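ugh ok fine here u go
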Amino acid sequence: MKTTLYLMLMSALLIGCAKTKGIVFCEGISPAGDGVNCGKKFEDGELTALIASDNPFGVKTISVRIYEIKNNKTEQIEAIPVEVKPEARAATVNLAFYAGGKYVVRAMTGNVLIGENQLEIVER
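structure:
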């Protein structure tokens, strides 16, 4: 019994500490392909989302879904199809945010979540 409990605890710790991929928001991309001025809080305007996956996408199109968080509710406001190579593990997409607020961006292959992240937009 103690051994089983110990193994379950260690498995949970390893899974929780594993390096995960997801979405990073940046003001642009360098010629080397790295994000420039990345973060979670930006002024209104255009951003670039860098999407990274642990596994190849396995499809030709992924969906980037944008949700607005308002009054403790999350509502999808846009879905953007992004063409990718099936063997690729990374993609970029340009996003435009012109209204202040908090948002969640999710990258999906069908109904499978590749990654998600939140950001805040401040109006100028």
